[in-house]
């Protein structure tokens, strides 16, 4: 297998972004030519026109709900060209964090190709800064169950559709990024068992591991938190060369048996290293001496895990992976030197046609602008037109333009647009919540305690309504500290609408509810049960009443609650 030509990839990217405006026009033309015969476009009266002006005039902005009837017909097996020229044969289940249930979105070869393209692009920039040797990667990736829809289409999470595609493996080989675990582990039917085996494979190949990755960095933190629980069992397996009886799937057992040989020296070494660590600080470089960096999406709802990730990674570089969604990719991280808090994503102008709704203006009237018209410093909602049947699709993400790479915008991910804590005139986003939790959890550090995960809810059953923040923390915390954390959370929402409402008690005192250890694991299990995969899991940061099951998991596990006295 030939390795990728990093210089050539970078050169191609540079020349494409220097001509971003034209490339966008050409991309739209290609999308509309390939799919012009689709019923959806036919009904909109484009009549073969492929220029952005006609496109914007004829095609409305849509949400997933608007497309649902079309997608449903595809899912049910209609083979006529509905959204795309070529029939769709595979469906992706998006993580559906916000709505509480996965959404169906079309997946096709073109989407696969753009996925590999963005992987190659960021790999090229990453490798230039942080070269890796020919070795292996500990990729904490998991597939969801792939099922057949009523109409016989294959359905799985987008990552599953990618991992199952034969081109994925070839590209990973060409990127020197081969997963150290066998396929049986990646595609295992139980993610607890797969996780255990990933860790075991990582340890077996510890000297060869060049980097550690996952789709979203939550999976990396989750894996090493699990390591803290199972490390002795892992050492025992290595010592004896026999897999724990906890792994029950025969295919996984036989795949692992091929790798596992009795190795008491390795078991002793790992045992000694683990005992020598202080609160697991620097665990990753201790276990994997040749790792060059940690890689996975670390921005947005993943930011709260950075602290723990740094704790495990010590001084290893953390590099945020690219920006995209089940609906399509958007931008690549071409500045791998930048810490994840500052990571930006350069839009790839040939993987889709992109528009941006300015958020400064009144939302209903704001007109979307093209990729070349965005302004530095402003925030926008992203709109995608893809090669997989989505036209002017509102992704619901808010991004900020931080600059341009040649002529293509660099985006900073801000938040999901609809994740908003609001009761009357207050508006707080996922990011505001994250900042409040960060501020309040600092009060905890003196106690050496940690907020493992968090979520929130607007409780309107009280009069006035109030914000509820759920915390899962490690260990016991003194009552006074939690009372102070609760006040700090309340004070940390600095949005003028919130503060003024709190002052006149139009919003009631914020409530901090501490949940039992393991509650967020139950939420994860709940989503996986619905068909989500650990690889794409994002903790819902704001749980609405419509997401009743998750709300019930949170509410049923509350052990203590505190009301703020900050106002
Ligand atoms: P999914 O629904 O599982 O396809 O996840 C897609 C969503 O994950 C996007 O719409 C974003 O909200 C979020 N996301 C994806 N990539 C990133 C990133 N690099 N930074 C922050 N959030 C991201």
UniProtKB/TrEMBL annotation:
Task: Tell me a Gene Ontology molecular-function term this record carries.
Answer: acid-amino acid ligase activity
Question: Of which family is this protein a member?
Answer: Belongs to the IAA-amido conjugating enzyme family.
Q: Which residues form the GH3 middle domain?
A: 345-416
Give yes or no: UniProt keyword Ligase. yes
* Annotated InterPro entries: GH3, GH3_C, GH3_M
Q: Which organism is it from?
A: Gossypium davidsonii (Davidson's cotton)
Taxonomically, the superkingdom here is Eukaryota
Provide the protein name.
Jasmonic acid-amido synthetase JAR1-like
Q: Name one GO cellular component term.
A: cytoplasm
Keyword list (alphabetical) reads: Ligase
């Amino acid at each position: 297998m030939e390795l990728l030509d990093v210089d050539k990839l970078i050169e191609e990217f540079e020349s494409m972004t220097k001509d971003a405006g034209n490339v966008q026009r050409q991309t739209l033309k290609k999308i509309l030519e390939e799919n012009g015969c689709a019923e959806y476009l036919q009904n909109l009266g484009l009549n073969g026109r492929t220029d952005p002006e006609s496109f914007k005039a004829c095609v409305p902005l849509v949400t997933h709900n608007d497309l649902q009837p079309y997608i449903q017909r595809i899912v049910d097996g209609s083979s006529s060209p509905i959204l795309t020229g070529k029939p769709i044969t595979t469906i992706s289940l998006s993580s559906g964090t916000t709505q509480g249930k996965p959404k169906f979105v079309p997946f096709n070869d073109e989407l696969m190709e753009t996925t590999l393209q963005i992987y190659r692009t960021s790999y090229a920039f990453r490798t230039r800064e942080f070269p890796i040797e020919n070795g292996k990667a500990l990729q904490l990736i998991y597939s969801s169950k792939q099922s057949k829809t009523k109409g016989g289409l294959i359905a799985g999470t987008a990552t599953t559709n990618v991992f199952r595609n034969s081109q994925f493996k070839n590209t990973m080989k060409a990127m020197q990024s081969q997963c150290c675990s066998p396929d049986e582990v990646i595609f295992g039917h139980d993610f607890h068992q797969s996780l255990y085996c990933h860790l075991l494979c990582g340890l077996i190949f510890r000297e060869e591991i060049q980097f550690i990755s996952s789709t979203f960095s939550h999976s990396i933190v989750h894996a090493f938190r699990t390591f803290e629980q199972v490390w002795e069992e892992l050492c025992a397996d290595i010592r004896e060369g026999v897999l724990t009886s906890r792994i029950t799937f025969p295919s996984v057992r036989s795949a692992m048996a091929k790798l596992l040989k009795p190795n008491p020296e390795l078991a002793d070494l790992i045992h000694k290293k683990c005992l020598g660590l202080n609160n697991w600080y620097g665990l990753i470089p201790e276990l994997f001496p040749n790792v060059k960096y940690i890689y996975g999406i670390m921005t947005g709802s993943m930011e709260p895990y950075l602290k723990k990730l740094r704790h495990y990674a010590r001084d290893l570089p953390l590099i945020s992976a690219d920006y995209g969604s089940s609906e399509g990719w958007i931008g690549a991280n071409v500045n791998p030197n930048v810490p994840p808090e500052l990571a930006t994503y350069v839009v790839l102008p040939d993987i889709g046609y992109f528009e941006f709704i300015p958020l400064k203006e009144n939302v209903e009237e704001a007109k979307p602008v093209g990729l070349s018209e965005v302004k530095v410093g402003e925030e926008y909602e992203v709109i995608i037109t893809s090669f997989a049947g989505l036209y002017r699709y509102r992704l619901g993400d808010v991004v900020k333009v931080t600059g341009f790479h040649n002529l293509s915008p660099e985006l900073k991910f801000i938040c999901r647009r609809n994740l908003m804590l609001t009761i009357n005139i207050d508006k707080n986003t996922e990011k505001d919540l994250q900042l409040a939790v960060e501020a309040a959890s600092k009060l905890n550090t003196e106690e050496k305690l940690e907020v493992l995960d968090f979520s929130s809810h607007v409780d309107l059953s009280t009069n006035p309504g109030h914000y509820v923040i759920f915390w899962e923390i490690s260990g016991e915390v003194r009552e006074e500290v939690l009372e102070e954390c609760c006040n700090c959370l309340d004070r940390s929402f600095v949005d003028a609408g919130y503060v003024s409402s709190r002052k006149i008690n139009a919003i009631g005192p914020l409530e901090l509810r501490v949940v039992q250890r393991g509650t967020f694991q139950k939420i994860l299990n709940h989503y996986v049960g619905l068909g989500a995969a650990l690889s794409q899991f994002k903790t819902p940061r704001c749980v609405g009443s419509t997401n009743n099951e998750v709300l019930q998991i949170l509410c049923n596990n509350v052990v203590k609650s505190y009301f703020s006295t900050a106002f």
